[in-house]
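Notebook, bench 3.
Goal today: get a predicted structure for MFS transporter from Alkalihalophilus lindianensis so we can plan the truncation constructs. The sequence was checked against the plasmid map this morning, with no discrepancies at the termini. Length recorded as 386 residues. Pasting the sequence as submitted so the record is complete.
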Amino acid sequence: MEYRSVYRLMAYLFFAYSTMTIVMSYIPLYFQADGLSGNQVGILMAIGPFATIIAQPFWGYMSDKYKTIKRMIIISACGVVVATFSFMFMSQFYGYLVMMFILFLFLSPLTALGDSLSQKTATLKSVSFGRIRMWGSLGFATTSLLTGYVLLVIGVDHLMIPMLIMATLALIMALSIKDVKGTNKPVTIISALKIGLDRKLMLFLLFVVFISITHRANDSYLGLYIVDLGGVESLIGWAWFIGVSAEALVFATSPLWFKKWQPLTFVTVAGFIYSIRWLLMGLATAPWMILPLQLAHGVTFGMFYIAGFQFVNKLIPEHLQATGHVLFITTFFGLSGIFGSLFGGWMIDGFGLEALYYCLTVSALVGAVGLMVFKFMNDRTPTIAK
């Protein structure tokens, strides 16, 4: 079948993001249950994004250089399986520190390269990128919900068991996906580094950081906030399920709304909605109040991510697409993850989770205003892909 490769890619994304959600949604509780402090949890949640900053540009460059995303995904998936298994034998803060770094060296490209391959496949097959990417969101949502109930039975100290299962399934599906052949233009380190010197791209990513920091801080501490408000582990699963299901809906319907305005318009609007979302989160007084607010996750992240991805796509030459894609993803999930986790851990210990969300409100608002100014400047000097 002509679209069999698309279906296989969708299945891969489902299990790759299923693996990611277990780390993002529950590993802070795993560390907290072992007696670690808020600052220690913050450092551990920051070491993953630090590894991401190193890993994602490397894997993106290697994919472009050797003209194969599939092979890099398979290597990464093997690394995740081995690292997850090794994690089971670690204990104490410094052991976790080493394993979080190793784990994210392989885990971060698992989804980043999957998204890059999805973009290339969507272009080749004339399929919506959002409708392929939504399967990653569905995997994230489904597994986050089910894992919450599984942990009620087996205990949060056995978190690595469901993660190992999902990582293995992601590896199996990675073996069946297909590469997309691109241009034969050679890729050098110099050509890859030139992407980072593009003034318009760097300015865009600067404003993105102010918003993505808030997103990543919430990723790290949403579970702790729900527990702090009196909720249980299964409620964390429901919160993620609602949020990422809404995200999947936004991805699935992207062909209907995305063509009406420019990508930068959606990115800016999403930034303002982020600030409202965090303000309402800070005002929450009971765990159930988080659930309806999670519907905004679909509009904020779903709209922000797909529009940002498309804008970056216009700035990057075809033979460096994977490098450009992972640069955006590294900024969103890596650099911002470090600042969000460290700052969040410091805020929690010093001022509490409620104060953290008020700070996130201000940061998102600064980013949204910056993007609004950037959009005005960009409209005056429109970008043409090279």
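Residues 5 and 280 are 42 Å apart (CA to CA). Residues 186-190 have pLDDT under 50 and may be disordered.
Flagging this for group meeting.
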